Amino acid sequence: MKQNRLERRGGLILMNSLVEAISRAECEKGELVFWWLGQSGYAIKIGGLIMYVDGYFTNSPGRSVPPKIRGDQVSNADIIMGTHDHSDHIDRAAWVDIAKASPQAVFVVPAGIVSTLERELPALGGRLIGINDGQTVNCKGLEITGVASAHEFLDYNPETGLYPYMGYSVSDGTVRFYHSGDACIYEGMISKIRQTGHLNVAFLPINGRDAVRLRANCIGNMTYQEAVDLAGTLRPDLTVPGHYDMFKHNSEDPQKFADYFSLKYPGLKYWIGNHYEEVRFSEL
After folding, report:
1. Of 51, 90, 157, 260, which is most buried by a Cβ count within 10 Å?
2. DSSP code of 163?
3. pLDDT over 70 (residue 9)
């Protein structure tokens, strides 16, 4: 284990009891607990609430990591967050099932896609919360701030002023995480993130981008080197790389991230571990 790598806790979770384990997990003030669901998907417990961010639940062809939770099994969600309207981030079929299984849940999405989802997913009617770049909302006691993401391109609708790709900075007042969604670094992005406050945990993609993938309409993200340097600039207490495991044509070796991170920023911590493993962060 690398010296600056977070010690794993809790062991592996039995897959058929994962939802129950998430519900049972204790989360004290100043703590954040997460489970990596694959790709950029995480179950996160913060401020006594259970969030699923970019959860990918559908057993689609080509997946390298099979899903261990179906949408209709997610009965414990308080907040479902999607960073953009791609199926491995907003799993539409699963969201319809989650809306039934978790009637208490609200669905947080980029404001630029709210009208589309309202029209195409009527089951979510009245439960969608749209967030735009720089906008902060209070959602069930959590402060959620939107930071526009550049998914290869920083897309923007000049008529509405809305962005289709969003990262989120989320805090319960004691601990804060940032989930970038699919993202490349652009001018002004770092200052926007910094303005939301000190990050305890940052979830970043590392699969990169190239002409081959872009030509095949597989739009890209920051490279592992860019993710390492973003972490080195923002200096979160813990950095979690993702989006490297799900599809063979769009993957990366996380060991490259680990080696570069350890060499360049030995004072910072990162986590690379197993799917569905409980990981506990405490600011104390």
Report:
1. 51
2. -
3. no
> For the chain, where are the E strands, in sequence order?
31-38, 41-46, 49-53, 79-81, 106-110, 128-131, 136-139, 142-148, 166-171, 176-179, 201-205, 238-242, 278-282
Q: What is the mean pLDDT of residues 221-249?
A: 97
3-class state of residue 211 by DSSP: helix
DSSP string, 218-245: -----BHHHHHHHHHHH--SEEEEESSS
Q: How far apart are CA 137 and CA 182, in angstroms?
A: 21
Hey, what are 26's tokens?
């204790």
- CATH superfamily of the domain spanning 15-282: Ribonuclease Z/Hydroxyacylglutathione hydrolase-like (3.60.15.10)
With 50 as the cut, is the pLDDT of residue 215 above it? Answer: yes
Contact 39, 242 (CB under 8 A): yes
According to DSSP, residue 119 is labeled H
Average pLDDT over residues 211-230: 95
Domains of the chain, by residue range, sit at: 15-282
Q: What number is the average pLDDT over the span 25-53?
A: 96
Q: Find the radius of gyration of the CA atoms of the chain.
A: 17
